Amino acid sequence: MSERGSFTEGAAATRVPQSVASRRIAGLERHLGERLFDRSSRGARLTPFGRDMLPSAKRLVRLADDMEYEAERARLNPLRFAVPDICAVRDLARLDAEARRNGIRLDFQTAAPADRVELVRSHLVRAALTAAPQGDAVWSVRLGLAGATGLLPGTVYVETLRAGRADRSSRRSRIWIQPEDDVPHIRDPLFRVRDAVGLQPAQVGVAATLTAAAAEVLGSTDLLLCSAKQAGELGLHWRPAGEIRPVRGFEVSAAARDDAERVRTRLRDAIARCLGADDREEGAPSSPRD
To answer: Which residue spans adopt a coiled-coil conformation according to this UniProt entry (predicted)?
Structure first.
């Protein structure tokens, strides 16, 4: 206004209706207790008080512009998010696309369960999908046993891996636990079943990597503890376990509660699809290769 000499021209330059600009100036004058402009039929001129206030007004305008710029940068700044290293690239890409539609930009870091907890604790990521028992989980993925042969029964009982007297010298089939499931609420119950039904300790073990576990299963009668979704991706035949119903659970952990809540509420369905935790996971034990 001060540079244009007219409320009408000043309002047009700032893309504000002239009536709105006039009301805002009048309100500011009431707040400050002095007139900022002398109004006449020939236009508007700054009063001496207005000229004294002009440098502060310009600083406020620059500050407002800076705030808008920083706000835009903050909106575009990605949320560094630790996820299980079993997530496929395609599933992460779909999750990222869904997050962008919900106003969140994600920067993924894949890691094992214990590492994801540490990444949050050390503030190297803003949020993470962390392992949780079923009762505390937001997302639950049913696990079963998968093998390379298509002759698996409808339900696989761990006790059927126990060697009989006639075949004690033959290689015993094993169950492999992948690193993602090397957590107490999944691993320990399976170890207890192993001991209760009389399997050898080595018949249920934790693999160093999912790749190593899958290689063992593909080349033998061994079984992999996994989800139906994983079994399909690996070309294995999946069945539920008989003695136990292991569940892979996930929760969102974050240093800031707002980050955790934003991910949990805006991306709940997208994360479920990424993890294979949708309704189909609870369905019949079918496999793409059946």
So the answer is: none
Are 241 and 271 members of one domain? no
pLDDT digits (tens, 9 = 90+) for 67-117: 876 666 556 678 999 999 999 999 999 999 999 999 899 999 999 999 999
**What was the pLDDT predicted at 89?**
93
Element containing residue 48 per DSSP (H, E): helix 48-76
Write the CA distances from 178 to 36, 106, 204, 205, 252, integer angstroms.
73, 26, 11, 9, 21
Strand runs labelled E in 58-126:
79-84, 106-111
What DSSP string runs through 55-72?
HHHHHHHHHHHHHHHHHH
Statement: the pTM of the whole predicted model exceeds 0.90:
no
What's the total number of domains in the chain? Answer: 3
Nearest to 237 by CA among 271, 284, 276, 285: 285
Cβ–Cβ under 8 Å, residues 82 and 114? no
**C-alpha–C-alpha distance, residues 77 and 229, integer Å:** 32
Q: The tokens of 226 are what?
A: 């996994």
Whether residue 172 is predicted with pLDDT greater than 90 in this model: the reply is no
Q: Which two tokens stand for residue 211?
A: 């790749």
- pLDDT given for residue 44 in this prediction: 78
- Note whether residue 287 is domain-resident: no
